[in-house]
Amino acid sequence: MKDRALFETYLNKPDHMGSECAYTNLFIWRDYYRTYWTEHLGFLIIKVDVEDTSFFLQPFGGEEEDLSRLVRDLKEYHGGGFEFHGIYESSLERLGKLAFEEEFVEDRDSWDYVYLQKDLATLSGRKFHGQKNHYNAFKKANPDYTFELINPENYAECLNFGEEWCRSRMDTDASIYWEWRALQEAFVNFEALGLRGGAIRIGGRIQAFSFGKAINDVICDENVEKANPQIRGLYTAIQKECAEKVWGDMTYINREEDMGNEGLRKAKEALHPAFMVKKYNLRIK
Predict the structure, then answer these.
(1) Rounded mean pLDDT of 180-185?
(2) Which string of DSSP letters, residue by residue, matches 135-166?
(3) What is the C-alpha to C-alpha distance for residues 227 and 206, in angstroms, rounded to an integer?
(4) Count of beta carbons in the 10 Å neighbourhood of residue 129
(5) Which of 122, 117, 125, 123 is nearest to 3 (CA)?
(6) Torsions phi, psi of 259, nearest 5?
(7) Is 281 a member of any domain?
(8) Would you state the pLDDT for residue 284?
(9) Mean pLDDT, the chain, as a whole number?
(10) How far apart are CA 284 and CA 233, in angstroms?
């Protein structure tokens, strides 16, 4: 499939960070994933400290003949073994030539779910029967709903809804606080980050939104999606409306990983991804 080949070629460039959206996520989540970067031997090196864990993203740029020296210097800096995270399949061979004791480990929780835009926009076919029923039930129960693109006039309303969504969950999940901070960063810098998205208004109030970024003219990445869980079919509605009206010029929509969350994994699998983008970790001992 030509477009899929373009998708994989773009994501798997050894000198590219996977996608421009990686930069977006690193920026808006920087207070949680404490991120540091430097350039060494012609490589871009990014270190991430989160909770009690420290790792590096795969090295970007540089020359293959300098990789072993880079790893040796990183071991010295780190005081021993360390891990590279976020490695795509096409980088396995490049990084597998290191002269060190190493181990590649599949990171299933970080695999990206990639969907055909037309599937999410139409929900046509038997495999989407359940989602289409939820969407139709939503429209029947909320005939006055409206969809609008996210723009400077509704940034504040979207952020207010996002904060409500987060506050209702902070008592049971402390990490949600950082999600709230990430939303603040995203809306304050929406245009500068090149984001686009849509929102659903019911009874005059924002009750759902989703946003992300186009990677090129074939692929986009949806970074965030929030909806009032008390309104049946609203998550399906915001997925479908954004696929149709925000990402109508795309072929694929990357809805990112499930982070090992069982409920999120079930929901993403139920939308029948066209394919998954595998990622690996590399343990340097």
Answers:
(1) 96
(2) HHHHHHH-TT-EEEE--TTTHHHHHHHHHHHH
(3) 9
(4) 10
(5) 117
(6) 60, 20
(7) no
(8) 92
(9) 91
(10) 46
- Which of 87, 111, 135 delimits the end of a domain? 111
Query: Dihedral sign, CA of 219, 258, 107, 75?
Result: positive
Domain housing 80: 2-111
For residues 26-38, average pLDDT: 90
Flag the least confident range among 59-63, 144-148, 185-189, 233-237.
59-63
Long-range Cβ pairs for the range 94-99 (8 Å, 24+): 94/14, 94/64, 94/67, 95/58, 95/67, 95/282, 97/64, 97/67, 98/67, 98/68, 98/71, 98/284, 99/68
285 within some domain: no
Q: What span, in angstroms and rounded, lies between the C-alpha atoms of 110 and 236?
A: 23
pLDDT-wise least confident of 13-22, 66-75, 234-243: 13-22
The CA-based dihedral angle spanning residues 63, 24, 19, 258, taken in that order and rounded to the nearest 10 degrees: 120
Q: Please state at what angle helix 176-188 crosses helix 155-167, rounded to 10 degrees.
A: 180
